[in-house]
Amino acid sequence: MPALNTKQIKLRLKSIPGWTKCAQTICRTFKFEGFLNSINFVNRIARKAQKANHHPDIDIRFDKVTLTLTTHDEGGITGKDFTLARQCDEVFSKNLAS
């Protein structure tokens, strides 16, 4: 899957509020009520990432989790990153409903 150009990235970012472009990545910080909820979220994301064979960089800071997505093989942001970003948003939404 080829890397997207700046115009394509800006357009796709509109469909995933909260995510921003950071150099050759997209990233978002999710906030939780406590450390265990953060870890639960990370574990759920890890299963989706493993299934997709597309793994985010994950930074856990007690009640905050920052996910950073890029497609290393393509040297930039691809559709894979946006697909996984949407899945992460779905997991987050379900986590809040739990």
Question: Topology of this structure?
Answer:
Blueprint lengths: L5 H8 L6 E3 L2 E7 L3 H18 L4 E5 L2 E6 L9 H19 L1
Antiparallel strand pairs: 1-2, 2-4, 3-4
Helix pairs in contact: 2-3
Spell out the key features of this protein.
98 residues, alpha+beta, four-stranded antiparallel sheet, 3 helices, 46% helix, globular
Molecular structure report:
- The longest helix has 19 residues, at 79-97.
- The model has no long low-confidence stretch (mean pLDDT 94).
- It is globular, with a radius of gyration of 13 Å.
- It has a four-stranded antiparallel sheet with strand order 1-2-4-3.
- The chain has helices at 6-13, 35-52, 79-97; strands at 20-22, 25-31, 57-61, 64-69.
- The chain is built from three helices and four strands; from the N terminus they run H-E-E-H-E-E-H.
- Helix 2 (35-52) runs antiparallel to helix 3.
- It is 46% helix and 21% strand.
- Strand 3 (57-61) and strand 4 form a beta hairpin.
- With 98 residues, the protein is an alpha+beta fold.
Instruction: Label the overall shape.
Output: globular
Query: What is the typical, i.e. mean, pLDDT?
Result: 94
What's the story with the biggest beta sheet? Answer: 4 strands, antiparallel
Strand proportion: 15-25%
Please report the number of helical segments.
3
Instruction: Output the radius of gyration.
Output: 13 Å
Number of strands: 4
In spatial order, strands of the major sheet run 1-2-4-3
This entry's quaternary arrangement is single chain
Give the ordered list of helices and strands. Answer: HEEHEEH
Helix and strand composition category: alpha+beta
How far apart the termini lie comes to 35 Å
Helix share bin:
40-55%
List low-confidence stretches: none
